[in-house]
């Protein structure tokens, strides 16, 4: 499988008051991406950060900022996120059923990499047209918890979705998000996930760098045996 592992600490579990230092710490410890959870208090019952914080962080790092937009109107944020310096813009399929083609086009024109996310209750078939369209998304984020909060329990039954995607799209970036850590990574890696978001398991560990290395090793091992 030719899809490289990307380990993406979720900065939602970091010390937001020291975001630049936390970002540098994660990159220095071997993270590939920084996962930024943007929540509007409407699509999910939590409110986090937006483009102004991405813009501030961008002044301190050239890392890939993997932005996960848990918002009801993703179109409203494309331009400002692009200007702020976001690298990836992942929207939820549940709120883009009518306008995903225009949305993906705009994300690309704004210089970002488009991704689509789906909630646990959303069937995987709903994202297939977005991967197969003329302007396709470049990543699928399979939520392994209900979106809204860090620190929740991994849902192993979501691995059926990851397996179905990997069988159909051998070179697609497939991200898993929610409850990933040393006890759950092997299931996700075996199913075919290569982009791994981990918040509480990384930031809550005495040695976050060890967790990052373990997550990567698990993905590499699973890839070597498929
Ligand atoms: O998108 C989300 C939550 O909605 C995630 O990115 C979480 O922030 C992951 O945190 P952990 O489950 O790894 O603690
Ligand atoms: Fe996320």
UniProtKB/TrEMBL annotation:
Gene Ontology MF terms: D-ribulose-phosphate 3-epimerase activity; metal ion binding
Active-site positions on this chain: 37 (proton acceptor), 177 (proton donor)
GO biological process: carbohydrate metabolic process; pentose-phosphate shunt
Membrane-traversing stretches: none
Protein origin, superkingdom: Eukaryota
SUPFAM superfamilies referenced in this protein's UniProt entry, alphabetically: Ribulose-phoshate binding barrel (SSF51366)
PROSITE patterns: RIBUL_P_3_EPIMER_1, RIBUL_P_3_EPIMER_2
Cofactor: binding details: Binds 1 divalent metal cation per subunit.
Binding residue positions for a divalent metal cation: 35, 37, 68, 177
CDD domains: RPE
Catalysed reactions, as listed in the record: D-ribulose 5-phosphate = D-xylulose 5-phosphate
One Pfam family matching this protein: Ribul_P_3_epim
Documented EC number(s): 5.1.3.1
Cofactor field: Co(2+); Fe(2+); Zn(2+); a divalent metal cation
Record's keyword terms, sorted: Carbohydrate metabolism, Cobalt, Isomerase, Manganese, Metal-binding, Zinc
Keyword Cytoplasm on entry: no
Binding site for substrate: 10, 68, 148-151, 179, 199-200
Presence of the UniProt keyword Flavoprotein in the record: no
Entry similarity comment: Belongs to the ribulose-phosphate 3-epimerase family.
Protein name: Ribulose-phosphate 3-epimerase
Record organism: Eutrema salsugineum
Phylogenetic classification of the source organism: Eukaryota, Viridiplantae, Streptophyta, Embryophyta, Tracheophyta
